[in-house]
Amino acid sequence: MIGLPQVYLVAGVTFAAFALLSARDASNPKRWVNALFWGLLALSLLAGDRLSDFGNGVLVMALVAIAGFGGLGRGVVLDRAEERRIGAERHGNRLFLLALVIPATALAGTLAFKQLPSLVDPKQVTLVSLTLGVILALIAGMVWLRPKVLVPLEEGRRLMDAVGWAAILPQMLASLGAVFALAGVGDAVGDLMSGVIPDGSRFGAVLAYALGMALFTMVMGNAFAAFPVMTAAIGLPLLIRQYGGDPAIVCAIGMLAGFCGTLMTPMAANFNIVPAALLELKDRNAVVKAQIPTALPLLAVNIALIYFLAFR
Amino acid sequence: MNYWPLLGILVIVAGFMLRLNALLVVVASALVTGLAAGLDLSAIVAALGKAFNDTRYVSVVWIVLPVIGLLERNGLQERARAMIAAMRGATPGRLLTGYLLLRQATAALGLTSIAGHAQTVRPLVAPMTEAAASEISALDEGEREQIKALAAATDNVGLFFGEDIFIAIGSILLMVGFLEQQGIVLSPFELSVWAIPTAVAAFAIHGVRLWRLDRRLAARMVQP
């Protein structure tokens, strides 16, 4: 059955290639540092399940030490504007067709593989389809555009270097969440929050629940971590049990109040920091700043929706 | 109740405010939190390692970069810009509103991975929006950055406030499981239907912002 192991194999080989290509890039003064960083990530993807938890932990510490003290370097990026202009003229809209191979395969695969549970792990259809889409797009690109063999990996590495250490921030924040859970941070926050709600005010309780969801999501970078804490502390005992709120409405819209928090925090790195790096923006918080004017009014709407819909 | 682990949250907030390297801040916070809770060092390192290993799927998306890089070297972004430049009536606001609708609709059907920052925003949506904006009015470097950031923001808004309408998405299943443990039995559909009002509000609020962006750019064009 095709599932995560095969996906991780493809990803691991890709990162191993990034590491090797980094090592040969003489224009990068820190080429060995880059090679080590992407190499360790390749090791994690290829052999993470064979390492102990502590072994993986040491790998994580090494990645952080490389990125945190000194950091990654970047090689000289050649100006290829002329080459790109010629390419755009020569290949025309065929380029869009190639770009759409990945989403189209992801779409078709997600729908089709669900019917083939013996072939593809039903829980991983999306990642398997994405990986398949990448492989198909690469094959089509090699046939149609006829680049030199190493061009896709070289260009991929160039983009990867632009993202830099931010590439592992989402995984690191998820790991921090695990330590928070182990240390009982959620329970302590819930305990504190349930102490600050004004007594007997239904609106106060709604406000505390929705704002608590948004704020704790901002701290954790993830509404999934905030939901059980806030709902156990405020949502269930007050909104649902004491004031008789509809649990479906309280929870569903409470979760979305948390999503408003996700829009406003650098802790949600894969949504907010990684795109800033990927678009090569100078301000790493530019995406968060672009989202706050949508997130705040939407949070207010969510508070109003819970208040007016849940207690009919 | 032991409140000392909350120190870890302070470390995070302070670290981000002081703009220290985020990876170092995360590890410092994990150490402070764990030690305050009475965990020993090796247990904290092992917990970090286990969670890192369990969440490797997050990093799989980077495998699209060789394809995107190959297409970009062959002029994908230039082609995207040329197409927008040739289109009459393409404005950044209209483009992003269309993308927002598409992203919300596909996410609501559970198709969250067909688009994204690496798959669609960097190669297509951001350069198209930038091109549409510069057709209307010359942009300085800061404005270019803002337009690109807004393209990424639009992807996030569409994803977040579309996906919860789908019944088999993680957050809906989390809610069903959590409520069941508390003795409240709900079907995923009963929860997901209540994501619709917020989805409509998200489209309206973000849509108005995009419309105002167009108005701002158009107003500038008229003035010298």
Explain how this protein is built.
The complex is a heterodimer of chains A (312) and B (224). Chain A has 312 residues and is mostly helical. Chain A folds into two domains: 4-167, no CATH class; 184-309. Helices cover 74% and strands 0% of the residues of chain A. Chain A has helices at 4-23, 31-47, 53-68, 81-91, 94-113, 125-145, 151-163, 169-183, 185-195, 202-220, 223-242, 247-262, 269-272, 274-278, 286-309. The mean pLDDT of chain A is 91. Chain B is an all-alpha fold. Chain B has two domains: 4-54, no CATH class; 67-222. In chain B, 73% of the residues lie in helices and 0% in strands. Chain B contains eleven helices and no strands. Chain B has helices at residues 7-17, 22-36, 41-54, 65-73, 76-86, 92-108, 117-136, 141-163, 170-181, 188-192, 196-222. In chain B, helix 1 (7-17) packs antiparallel against helix 2 (22-36) and helix 8 runs antiparallel to helix 11. The longest helix of chain B has 27 residues, at 196-222. Chain B is globular, with a radius of gyration of 22 Å. At the A-B interface, helix 1, helix 2, helix 3, helix 4 and helix 5 of A face helix 1, helix 2, helix 3, helix 4 and helix 5 of B.
